[in-house]
Design a protein that fits this description.
This protein has about 280 residues and is of the alpha/beta class. It contains 9 helices and 7 strands, in the order βααβαβαβαβααβααβ. A 4-stranded mixed β-sheet has the order 4-5-7-6, covered by helices on one side. Strands 1-2-3 form a 3-stranded parallel β-sheet, with helices on both faces. The radius of gyration is 19 Å and the shape is globular.
């Protein structure tokens, strides 16, 4: 089960991994906590979306369905409303009723029920910083940890299904400075222009702690599915932008893995791992 804040997050974070496991016959469920209805159009060539929030919500549902098909995964809407990304100094208040303002137990209850229904052995989500400090990403982290810890307890969330205890919880790796510098240097060595120099400089000038990587999944064979899923989110992903600026032939040589941080495990495992199901393949679950 891969738990994400908005539609398109599942395609930019661990998408090739989910496609890989789905192709290998693993039941994979992507969960979108919100509908992404307050998201801006980030693709400069897309144009305007008519119909306000309702129009954006309908469009993003269509995009998510196409992305799930590209990845070969199942999908579930948790049903909360996008909080938007507040901007300004001071920051404006979040809109009433949005996901980030829902009390934790209320926000986690439908995810606990879904965990008890789907019965995942492994859950992936964001770290405590949300990967980046979007209020919905931080709330997604909170509800995912709550569901992981509570779903197996029969005294919690009574009436939300029969208890099920997932075995492992992971945080998605992001665009780490180490990864981007490796790609940047490989492009320069190949005599090609790198679009990542400014990004690297900005990260070096405002250091962000690198997360521990415990698990690397070789998912290069599924980059094509990942890219198709990204393109499905046409309002959010610029086909000429950041995500596609990295030549795939160089990426496959330099960095064909997707990274994770093992946050909790109820089964013995050895670090580093190359499989999210390490410790489970022998029936330990």
């Amino acid at each position: 089960m891969a738990v994400h804040a908005h539609p398109d997050d599942e395609s930019s974070k661990g998408a090739a991994t989910t496609a890989k496991y789905a192709a290998e016959g693993v039941d994979v469920l992507v969960v979108s906590c919100t509908g992404g209805e307050r998201g801006d159009v980030l693709n400069p060539s897309y144009g305007e979306v008519p119909g306000g929030i309702e129009g954006m919500q309908a469009l993003r549902r269509e995009e998510m369905a196409a992305a799930a098909e590209a990845l070969g995964v199942q999908h579930h809407w948790l049903g909360f409303v996008d909080s938007g990304l507040p901007e300004g100094d001071p920051l404006p208040p979040l809109p009433d009723g949005c996901f980030a303002l829902v009390p934790l137990e209320e926000a986690a209850a439908p995810l606990v029920e879904l965990v008890r229904t789907f019965k995942p052995h492994v859950i992936t989500t964001y770290d405590e910083n949300g990967g980046y400090p979007h209020p919905d990403h931080i709330q997604c982290h909170k509800v995912s940890v709550e569901a992981f810890e509570a779903a197996g307890d029969p005294e919690r969330y009574v009436g939300r299904g029969e208890p099920w205890t997932p075995s492992k919880l992971y945080y998605n790796g992001g665009f780490s400075l180490v990864r981007m510098r490796a790609i940047h240097e490989a492009l320069l060595e190949a005599g090609r222009e790198s679009p990542f120099g400014e990004w690297i400089e900005s990260r070096e000038s405002r250091p962000w702690p690198e997360r521990e990587v415990t698990t690397r999944i070789d998912a290069g064979a599924y980059f094509e599915q990942r890219d198709a899923a990204l393109r499905a989110h046409a309002t959010q992903i610029d086909p000429d932008g950041f995500f596609f600026a990295m030549p795939r032939e160089i990426e496959l040589v330099q960095w064909r893995t997707e990274e994770y941080e093992l946050a909790q495990s109820r089964v013995p495992t050895n670090i580093p791992e190359d499989d999210l199901f390490a410790g489970l393949r022998d029936g330990a679950a």
